[in-house]
Amino acid sequence: MKIGFIGLGNMGGPMAANLVKGGHQVAGFDLTAPMPEGVTKAATAAEAATDADVVLTMLPNGAILRAVAAEVIPAMRKGAILCDCSTVDVDSARAVAELADAAGLGALDAPVSGGIGGASAGTLTFMVGGTDEAFARVLPLFDIMGQKAVHCGTAGAGQAAKICNNMILGVTMIATCEAFALADKLGLDRQKMYDVVSTSSGYSWSLNAYCPAPGVGPKSPADNEYRPGFASELMLKDLRLSQQAAESADADTPMGQLATALYTSFVEAEGGKGRDFSAMLPRFEKRHRN
Ligand code: NAD
Asked: Could you report the per-residue pLDDT of 204-244, keeping only the tens digit for each?
């Protein structure tokens, strides 16, 4: 396929490189990032999109996605598909899909989980919103860049799945960290705490697969001085998107709201920026009631 790839940063770069390795012809555009090997550099986003069967975007946020979409949609040929893999707000994903549809194009929102490691290894999970037809046409590309693609529903459903998942993740990580800090103060050994909870009803991915306590459970960023991993500021971005969506859908999400407030102070006032999101544990360790 002929592919246009816009946004070749930490995630987009290795994803585009994998598409080249998979035998596709990729034209790329980024404001600053270098082109990965085998990707032809385009002078503008519109140039990268012209003639492409599929245009992929991997950009920082919804406002930038909307601006890029407004530029590339008129340049794309009828029947081509615009597939955004960034994590953005549901409203932007739906607005871009409507614009694309009105121009006779297919559109998908296809955010990923798996991080930079998954992007390089080609093991991302894609959560996809859009039509069956568009999903079927882009599936061969998802198969190269990832190990799993779930078609979640119509436009916006991919972003909805992503932020609901990450809202659960933020909330359970905080709950796990505060419970470890409480266990410490109660004199409970962390290994015993892990042995019990990981096989009891308090278990979760945050505890069992990504334990925030160093030296306990499987290897995780806690064993590497909380270097990310999944940085706290990226968790905060996703939590904010979840609250923006909750606001717009009139959904009551008190735990998501509290998790957003805690990660906001962690990132903005407590040195959490650049640290893994599981560094909530040392934060709680230092604190007292009120
Ligand atoms: P990044 O900042 O490394 O890359 C974004 C790229 O977009 C940059 O290279 C930037 O120059 C480029 N860009 C910005 N505006 C542009 C424009 N108008 N035209 C062309 N290029 C433009 O970010 P990233 O880590 O690659 O993340 C990209 C997206 O993936 C984000 O939405 C993020 O939330 C999501 N995501 C990231 C991770 C992760 O672990 N990094 C995991 C899952 C999802």
From this structure: 999 999 999 999 999 999 999 999 999 999 999 999 999 99
What confidence score (pLDDT) does residue 23 get? 98
Residue type for position 280: M
Q: Atom 4 (ligand 1): residue with closest C-alpha?
A: 9
Pocket lined around ligand 1, Cβ cut-off 6 Å: 6-12, 29-33, 45, 58-60, 64, 68, 86-87, 112, 115-116, 234, 237
Catalytic residues: 162
- What is the spatial distance between Cα 147 and Cα 132, in angstroms, rounded to a whole number? 19
Instruction: Compute the distance from residue 33 Cα to the ligand 1 centre, in Å.
Output: 10
What integer is the mean pLDDT of 130-141? 98
The one-letter amino acid at 80? A
Task: Tell me the C-alpha distance between 114 and 149, whole Å.
Answer: 12
Report H helices in the chain: 12-21, 45-49, 62-72, 90-102, 115-121, 132-145, 157-185, 190-197, 205-208, 232-249, 254-269, 280-285
**What pLDDT digit, counting tens, does each position of 97-131 carry?**
999 999 999 999 999 999 898 999 999 999 999 99
